[in-house]
Write a structure and sequence with these properties.
The protein is mostly helical. The protein is built from 20 helices and no strands. The protein folds into 2 domains: about 200 residues, MFS general substrate transporter like domains (Growth Hormone, Chain: A, Up-down Bundle); about 220 residues, MFS general substrate transporter like domains (Growth Hormone, Chain: A, Up-down Bundle).
């Protein structure tokens, strides 16, 4: 019996095991995004308010920020495989809850907020578990390929899910979409049951971090404070997230304003975001990351910000907007994937849950600020400033034009400029430029043999 189990585990580990997990998460994410699309349509029909839709994202984000520190400690204490299964179960049960309410005619908008909060809590545990599991499943040389595959998933689902949900909604309704979602999370869980996810060996850092849950929860933050180059790089990424959120929050109104509410034009530009992400992820999954990762990371940021928000801001037609949308995500895939590989190679495997939880929290906390700033500045500062006859139109009119949408175009160019400065910081700031020398790799590799926690 033990010999049979060993053969089974040997068959589904390494890159093959990771690929099965990746496939399950890919399929599950398509189902989740289809449900989100259908519920967005339903919420708009019921409330007619954009605020109601924005609150869904807010209710999902807040639990992730609140629970991330304790989630990291739990990830390092418990089986990462079990946590990933539990995360999929939470998402699936939440969908079943909404499905039942919809079928009996009792679903209300606050039910969606509740489910968003529950799903956000589950994601706070699942995301660091997933990222930490990669480090123990596959050799270090394949980290770049794995990150490329993960990045490709998010972009591919942004194309596939809305198209599939839009095509099916009229035939099977929201309840049919949610049935599909339930089937996809079942598939994801079945893939997780097939694979072996080893628990990491204990490192010196892991030994020092042992203690109460609260002490272990705080360890991730202290780890970052003790490694200044990693913290500085993380802060540059948090600032970049602020800039990108600032830019993307005004993308849709900018294009609609400049095209007299041409929804097809907007949908086409959004499709190119997805195509850029799929292309970037595919290239990275084949070639991995560059040998000099920090240099490659900040070159990718420069490419993304030079060719992304800048082209989107100065553009007034589909070709420039499509190119900007494609390149901003194409290079962002390399930046995001390379950053993740740096963290996976520099952080000991048995404390990655705690460190990655804080990493995700700090990197994401700036996003709500970017959302609030973008709308306020567009409505009350930049759009009025760029109307014909105002001083802004006289100074910047040749760059971004004038009239409706020009102010938001100027905001895009401003975001791109700040992004370029952030990209240059990787070559100017010594702590970032020399990070790979200052912070040694944790040389722990996934072991071919061993007992898997969680089976």
């Amino acid at each position: 019996m033990n010999e049979m189990k060993a053969r089974w585990n040997d068959r589904f580990d390494g890159m093959l095991g990771f690929s099965l997990v990746w496939l399950g998460q890919f399929v599950s994410l398509i189902g989740s995004q289809m449900t989100r699309f259908g519920l967005t349509i339903w919420a708009w029909q019921v409330t007619g308010r954009a605020t109601a839709l924005a609150l869904v994202g807010l209710f999902s984000l807040i639990p992730m920020l609140v629970f991330s520190p304790i989630a990291g400690a739990v990830v390092d204490r418990w089986s990462r495989k079990k946590l990933m299964i539990l995360g999929d179960l939470v998402a699936g049960v939440s969908t079943i809850f909404l499905l039942i309410l919809f079928l009996i005619g009792k679903m209300e908008i606050w039910h969606i907020y509740l489910v968003a909060a529950i799903s956000g809590t589950g994601e706070a545990f699942q995301r660091p578990a997933y990222m930490a599991a990669i480090s123990t499943m596959i050799p270090k040389k394949h980290y770049g390929r794995a990150q490329g595959m993960i990045g490709m998933v998010a972009s591919a689902t942004s194309i596939i899910a809305p198209m599939a949900a839009g095509a099916l909604l009229g035939f099977i309704g929201i309840n049919g979409i949610m049935f599909i979602d339930v089937a996809t999370f079942t598939f994801a869980i079945s893939m997780l049951f097939l694979v072996r996810i080893p628990q990491p060996a204990q490192s010196t850092e892991g030994e020092k971090a042992r203690g109460s849950m609260w002490r272990e929860s705080a360890f991730g933050f202290h780890f970052l404070l003790d490694r200044r180059p990693l913290l500085i790089m993380l802060m540059s990424f948090a600032t970049l997230n602020l800039v990108l959120t600032f830019a993307f929050s005004i993308l849709a109104p900018m294009i609609l304003a400049r095209t007299e509410t041409n929804e097809i034009m907007l949908a086409t530009v959004q499709m190119f975001f997805g195509l850029g992400g799929v292309a970037g992820g595919a290239v990275m999954s084949i070639f991995g990351t560059p040998k000099k990762r920090v240099r490659g990371l900040y070159l990718s940021i420069l490419g993304s910000m030079l060719l992304g928000p800048t082209l989107l801001g100065i553009g007034s037609s589909l070709p420039l907007w499509a190119a900007g949308a494609f390149f901003v995500v194409f290079f962002a895939q390399f930046a995001s994937g390379t950053s993740s590989v740096i963290w996976q190679t520099k952080v000991p495997h048995d404390v990655q849950g705690r460190v990655f939880a804080y990493r995700g929290m700090i990197a994401s906390i700036a996003s709500p600020i970017g959302m609030m700033l973008a709308g306020t500045l567009a409505d009350y500062v930049f759009e009025p400033m760029m109307q014909v006859g105002n001083w802004g139109a006289d100074i910047f009119g040749r760059l971004v034009g004038t009239g409706p949408g020009a102010g938001m175009g100027l905001m895009m160019v401003l975001a791109g400029t700040i992004g370029v400065i952030l990209g240059l910081s990787g070559f100017i700031i010594p702590a970032i430029r020399n990070l790979e020398k200052l912070i040694p790799d944790c040389d722990t590799e996934p072991e071919p043999e061993g007992v898997e926690a969680g089976t």
